[in-house]
Amino acid sequence: MTIAKALTIAGSDCGGGAGIQADLKSFQERDVFGMSVITVLTAQNTLGVHGVYPQTLEAIGAQIDAIFQDMGTDAVKTGMLFSDEIVHLVVEKLQQYKAKNIVVDPVMIAKGGAPLLQKQAMDTVKSRLLPIATVITPNLPEACEILGLDSINTLEEMKKAAKALRELGPKYVVLKGGHLEGSNEAVDILFDGEEYFYFTAKRIDTIHTHGTGCTFAAAITAELAKGKSVHEAVGTAKQFIQAAIEESLCIGKGIGPTKHSAYRLR
Ligand SMILES: Nc1ncnc2c1ncn2[C@@H]1O[C@H](COP(=O)(O)OP(=O)(O)OP(=O)(O)O)[C@@H](O)[C@H]1O
Ligand SMILES: Cc1ncc(COP(=O)(O)O)c(N)n1
Questions:
Q1: How far is Cα 260 from Cα 266, in angstroms, rounded to an integer?
Q2: Residue 55's Cα: distance from chain center in Å?
Q3: What's the CA gap between 243 and 260, in Å, rounded?
Q4: Is 157 a domain residue?
């Protein structure tokens, strides 16, 4: 029996809504064998990030080696990488093992405002990580940070930003519009260097969106692992995250997680 394999290289969210935990749940939901490399442990719940504990470079490198020297993977997602040294290491290892279908979610700030990427790492993300990506999935604040923009406020500005992001080297850009204000739709734009594709869904009025970015990028990764095209993968991931947010969970006292099983159970 064979199964597609996907690897996530990201931070652990002990609260289960984002990071490694969201990724593995999403891989499982999409019938892909999930594997993980933990870069950082976070002490985190729906109220915020209470502690960040980076793993040693030795531990991170050994986890990546263990996976690539034996099992290999059909697609890989990166999430919270936190420090400059970790970004460097991950890029080197992905190049060494000629990893394919690399989905980079350039995680920078948690919903509650906690920094998940140190300022010094930003240049390395731009110059080393984005160029090796098949797909990048920034949200609007992340796109602004990468491009040095004050804000992105309209679909036209999103298109321009997607084009500028693609010039940094990734094959495909998925610019997520979850943060676009004043719209009753959540519109994500896919740019492949030639055409823009819009993935639109009704904006759901909920605060329980912890881990939406991780879940969406993990669903894209799972579909790429199964051999789907980027367009198909983004389409499925959009439906997956929409269902997960529609049935999002009021667990904890703050910003609750989404329901990863919602799409499958429909
Ligand atoms: N309220 C909402 N209703 C419907 N879709 C949403 C909503 N918020 C976000 N989305 C969708 O969820 C996906 C993730 O987008 P978002 O912009 O929230 O990512 P993010 O900010 O990176 O998430 P995270 O906060 O987990 O890092 C996108 O497809 C986006 O359009
Ligand atoms: C380990 C980890 N990775 C990513 C996120 C971003 O998710 P969110 O912005 O929804 O908190 C997070 N909070 N924690």
A1: 12
A2: 20
A3: 8
A4: yes
**Domain of 235, in residue numbers:** 5-260
Please give the distance, rounded to the nearest whole angstrom, from the Cα atom of residue 85 to the centre of ligand 1: 28
Is there a catalytic annotation at residue 209? yes
Task: Give residue 171's pLDDT.
Answer: 98
Residues 242 and 236: their CA atoms lie apart, in Å, by 10
Pairing of strands 185-191, 196-202: antiparallel
Which value does ipTM take for this structure?
A: 0.95
**Domains contained in the chain, number:** 1
Residues 148-192: tens digit of each pLDDT:
999 999 999 999 999 999 999 999 999 999 888 888 999 999 999
- Concerning whether 154 is annotated as a catalytic residue, the answer is no
Residues of the chain with pLDDT under 50: none
Q: Which ligand is nearest to the CA of 216?
A: 1
Spatial contact of 231 and 155, defined as CB atoms under 8 Å apart: no
Ramachandran class of 110: left when φ > 0, alpha when ψ lies in -120 to 50, beta otherwise: beta
> Is residue 265 a part of any domain in this protein?
no
Residues 6+ away with beta carbon under 8 Å from 260: 22, 25, 26, 29, 215, 244
Kindly state whether residue 113 falls inside one of the protein's structural domains: yes
| Bridge partner list, 199 | 188
Among residues 134, 212, 215, 236, the one annotated as catalytic is 212
pLDDT score recorded for residue 228: 98
Q: Are 4 and 74 in contact (CB under 8 A)?
A: yes
Residue 96: give its domain's CATH number. 3.40.1190.20
In angstroms, the CA 4 to CA 98 distance is 17
Q: Considering the domain boundaries, does residue 90 fall inside one? A: yes
Which pLDDT score, from 0 to 100, does residue 112 have?
81
Average pLDDT across the chain, whole number:
97
